[in-house]
Model the fold of this input.
Amino acid sequence: MRTTVGIVGAGPAGLLLARLLHGAGIDCVVLENRTRAYVEQRQRAGILEQGTADALRACGAGARMDAEGLVHHGIELRFDRRRHRVGFPELTGGRSVTVYAQTEVVKDLIALQLAEGPPLLFEARALAVEKPESDHPVVRFTHAGREQTLDCDYVVGCDGFHGIARAAVPDEIRRTYERTYPYSWLGILADVPPSCDELIYARGADGFALHSMRSPTVSRLYLQVPNGTDPADWSDERIWDELDRRFATDDGDWSLARGPITSKSVTPMRSHVTEPMRYGRVFLAGDAAHIVPPTGAKGLNLAVSDVRVLARAFAHHHRTGSDELLDSYSDLCLRRVWQATRFSYDMTTMLHSQPGESAFDTRVRLARLHRLAASAPAAAELAANYTGLPL
Done:
């Protein structure tokens, strides 16, 4: 099998890249290890930056998002049993975010890909990327019970942290930067309408809590818990009681609606960045190159910004024959990656209780929150990062 761009992974990054390349007249093939049903059911992020939503609309994948997504114009911070709203449009020149689950983004992109786009092979397990420095790198994979090869001009690894693409960058060249946080998130999905119109980020003496949503009838909530927590140890009643405590304020005019919990899971918190994001004719995008804690809602959005930059570079090469934008891909993306990593780190450390932290450290973290509540420039910096920095 032969193509110009071989894409490993059919998550939002790989699927959007395929869509953008198709629009630019560049042929590609997408290989996905899992079944279509599995890919369309993976629970992941749900906050789309302004630029991500605009990119989906521009490539023809925005109709259902616009019909069913929830546009949010701010977030609420809770600390010291008080509430403070950070509005986005007035601080960012009109930018907002959209709540639309990653599962739904993937469904929309898969439907377009199968109807109009280049080949998308499910249950195609990539084994290795070979000859990354040559003019024609090769992806070895198994599909339909036999081993095959995909001969490419370029390979893009959108296959996540545990994929095979990152291994194409030699150990002596690859640099890794990482941080593991001393807590995790216990997340639930509940069949109950959200108790809020916008996301609530709460910091209390017992730890962090987040109230999000997936739709007008489904709520998504999180609790800070110790690493190694087993979700089976948390009964539904215990979860709701703890959420009540962490969201509590002194004004008394808000209450948390309870409902049937349909899923529970624990997510470790970590940051990970791989440099460079290109080696030879192999490019890394999304979680194959970087992971951020979910506090800042950057993971999916960083993946989208990666492939937007890369698609633009491929289109430029296709039109002009110039490698200029391809050569600058890694440096350009890493500048944005590190800004998102910094923002995610700041949000995470500001809002979470740190095991064993001193009273001094606690007061410093609260001072940062009070600064956000009192300073328009500080709030504007948060809003600019949350809604998405310029590409």
